[in-house]
Amino acid sequence: MMLFFRLFYEFFKVGLFAVGGGMATIPFLYDISARTGWFTQADLFNMIAVSESTPGPIGVNMATYVGYVTGMDVAGIPTAVLGAAVASLGLVAPSIIVILIIASFLKSFRDNKYVNSAFYGLRPTSAALIAAAGITVAVANLFYEEVIRTAGWCIEAVNIKGIILAVILWILTNKVKKTKGLHPIIFIAASAVVGIVFSFT
User: Fold this and answer.
1) pLDDT tens digits for 149-173?
2) Longest C-alpha distance within the chain, in Å?
3) What is the residue-wise DSSP string for the chain?
4) pTM value > 0.85
């Protein structure tokens, strides 16, 4: 039972402080990984890839996954399903509470200079959290962190295949007129196929 309380508590904190949406949850998920050991950083990167290529917000998808895997380790499928539900509920509960409070007060305070200042203050915070998450994911996928830790920055630390794929995708999505208007799911599916064919492990 304590596991479910902790799952709810940990993801409630994520939902409460990850201002800016799904990608902003990633720094908090790093922290959970380090403190609880529920999942590794490799698991986190896999969750990001799956969450970005499946329907639904990335934060909720990741909370569901962590809750399910953690519950499965305890007592099988029934506990796994409950863990997934508890973690997901913990993540969305702050948003529901905050939105209900804001909805009840915003109409009265929408023109209040302090409320407007608070909203403007949250914008750079959201941008910084998302940027930090993006940089972390990019470094983890374009470089081999274990090699960097042991041998420092060297050519062996560079994930050549990952960088080539990233550059090709950037060109196709930004520079080539025929492809830059395509739906993102096409690039996600193509990247998955490339990862399998060229053994991106």
Assistant:
1) 888 888 888 888 889 999 999 999 9
2) 59
3) -HHHHHHHHHHHHHHHH-TTSGGGGHHHHHHHHHHH-SS-HHHHHHHHHHHHTSSS-HHHHHHHHHHHHHHHHHHSHHHHHHHHHHHHHHHHHHHHHHHHHHHHHHHHHTT-HHHHHHHHHHHHHHHHHHHHHHHHHHHHHHB-HHHHHHH-S-GGGB-HHHHHHHHHHHHHHHT-HHHHTS-HHHHHHHHHHHHHHTT--
4) no
The neighbouring-strand residues paired with 110 are none
The phi and psi torsions of 158 (rounded to 5 degrees) equal: -90, 130
User: What is the chain's Cα-based Rg?
Assistant: 20
Tokens matching residue 160 = 């050549």
Is the CB of residue 7 less than 8 Å from the CB of residue 73? no
Name, in order, each residue with C-beta under 8 angstroms of 14's C-beta and a sequence gap of 6 or more.
Answer: 25, 28, 29, 32, 59, 63, 90, 91
- Asked whether the predicted pLDDT for residue 70 surpasses 90, the reply is no
Residue 38 contacts residue 52 (beta carbons within 8 Å) = no
Q: Decide: 58 and 52 in contact? Cβ < 8 Å.
A: yes
Which residue has tokens 């895997």? 69
